[in-house]
């Protein structure tokens, strides 16, 4: 009986540790670095729809969430859509949104891939009006 409790304890500890390390936004690695130039608008192209926000508060919320993403490896999954940042200096930065491992979303651009919690990113996109939930 005592051995069964030890095995159960090891399984519980391993489960908690793997959930902490592998689910949601990665805990380690460099974070996504974005330009300090103000963003004038953000466009989301996903599921054959295009949505744009221009409000500075909404853009700031999206950038704040994106900056939590941590460096990861580029997966070969097809993109769900694109998220394009339009800066005040006329430049743009396009991120391909790819499903990642363990309930993560990968933001892939020319600098590489950065992973963030899928639910955290989609909640922010929904809150600012870029992602509209379809009710059945």
The count of DSSP E runs of length 2 or more, i.e. the number of strands, is 7
CATH topology name, in short, is Immunoglobulin-like
Radius of gyration of CA atoms, rounded to a whole number: 18 Å
- Class of secondary structure makeup: alpha+beta
Strand content: 25-35%
Mean pLDDT: 83
Strand order of the largest sheet: 2-1-4-5-6-7-3
| Helix segment tally | 3
Helicity level? 25-40%
Task: Summarize the structure in words.
This protein has 136 residues and is an alpha+beta fold. It has one domain (25-127): Immunoglobulin-like. The chain is built from 3 helices and 7 strands, in the order H-E-E-H-E-E-E-E-E-H. It has helices spanning 2-22, 56-66, 118-127; strands at 39-46, 49-53, 70-72, 81-87, 92-99, 104-109, 112-117. A 7-stranded antiparallel β-sheet has the order 2-1-4-5-6-7-3. The mean pLDDT is 83.
Spell out the key features of this protein:
alpha+beta, 7 strands
Secondary-structure blueprint of this entry?
Elements (H helix, E strand, L loop, with lengths): L1 H21 L16 E8 L2 E5 L2 H11 L3 E3 L8 E7 L4 E8 L4 E6 L2 E6 H10 L9
Helix pairs in contact: 2-3
What is this entry, summarized?
The protein is α+β, with helices and mostly antiparallel strands.
